[in-house]
């Protein structure tokens, strides 16, 4: 298939050459989705997923919880049976993200069932800087067990996510702090989506993007999101990066033209 890129469903920015945040989604209705996992930050790999992830207690909980559901026969992926079998044989974060990426990408062109308890699953890849701007990390100390339990049950995530992450409640201070921060960020992004009449949804705009196209996307995002100062700062940074990249491309092309005698 070769390399390909997705656009951030929040901003419309290209994810090429960017860090991204992965959140697994599960269908509530055919048109409505809810978070199934907590945010995972990495670098977009141009293959529909992220890499260069720093594993922690939350990523481990995602893998353990999902593996438990797979073992119980609750997960079906008939069009990605190889990826599901690889994960089932040796549960790990890389294999799990590859499973989500395979199904999410395939579903753009044809139906690709991937279900948990009969409900469709997909993924959302958000430009990491945009995510940071809309959902800053707030908690600085681990909450008590009871407080985290209340936060988990009040969070705008699916009940299946609560089942998957319920063990964080009795985790150590570091794990409870990470969980509380992640839940706070999901709640902040959910509030932004609601305020802007948006919903959780898997991104499905993809293609092979290059500097000029990335810049077009960024300029369009600057116009569309001009009323949001936090996102404007992020987008302005992307525009500056892409303009610098375009200038470097022009210099490289001019050098090649001189060296090879092109007119």
Walk me through the structure:
The protein has 263 residues and is an alpha+beta fold. The chain has 2 domains: 5-206, no CATH class; 210-259. 49% of the residues lie in helices and 15% in strands. The protein has helices spanning 57-71, 81-89, 93-106, 128-134, 145-154, 159-165, 173-195, 211-224, 229-259, and strands at 5-6, 19-29, 32-35, 40-44, 50-51, 75-76, 115-116, 119-127, 206-207. Strands 2, 3, 4, 5, 6, 7 and 8 form a 7-stranded antiparallel sheet that branches. It has a two-stranded antiparallel ribbon with strand order 1-9. Helix 5 runs parallel beside helix 7 (173-195) and helix 8 (211-224) runs antiparallel to helix 9 (229-259). The chain is globular, with a radius of gyration of 20 Å.
Q: How would you summarize what this structure contains?
A:
Residues 243-263 are annotated as: Disordered. By secondary structure, the protein is α+β, with helices and mostly antiparallel strands.
Which terms summarize this structure?
49% helix; 2 domains; alpha+beta; seven-stranded antiparallel β-sheet; 263 residues
């Amino acid at each position: 298939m070769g390399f390909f890129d997705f656009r951030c469903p929040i901003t419309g920015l290209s994810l090429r050459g960017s860090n991204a945040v992965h959140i697994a989604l599960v269908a509530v209705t055919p048109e409505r989705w809810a978070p199934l996992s907590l945010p995972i930050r990495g670098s977009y790999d141009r293959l529909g997923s992220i890499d260069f992830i720093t594993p922690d207690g939350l990523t481990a909980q995602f893998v353990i919880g999902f593996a438990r559901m797979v073992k119980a026969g609750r997960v079906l992926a008939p069009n990605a049976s190889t990826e599901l079998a690889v994960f089932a044989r040796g549960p790990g974060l890389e294999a799990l993200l590859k499973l989500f990426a395979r199904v999410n990408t395939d579903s753009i062109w044809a139906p690709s069932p991937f279900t948990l308890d009969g409900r469709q699953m997909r993924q959302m890849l958000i430009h990491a800087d945009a995510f940071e701007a809309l959902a800053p990390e707030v908690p600085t100390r681990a909450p008590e067990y009871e407080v985290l339990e209340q936060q988990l049950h009040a969070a705008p995530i699916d009940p299946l996510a609560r089942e998957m992450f319920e063990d964080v409640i009795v985790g150590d201070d570091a794990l409870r702090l990470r969980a509380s921060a992640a839940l706070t960020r999901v709640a902040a992004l959910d509030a932004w989506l609601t305020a802007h009449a948006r919903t959780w949804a898997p991104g499905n705009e993809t293609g092979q993007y290059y500097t000029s196209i990335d810049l077009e996307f960024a300029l369009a995002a600057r116009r569309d999101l001009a009323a949001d100062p936090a996102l404007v700062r992020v987008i302005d940074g992307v525009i500056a990066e892409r303009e610098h990249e375009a200038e470097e491309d022009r210099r490289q092309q001019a050098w090649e033209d001189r060296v090879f005698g092109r007119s």
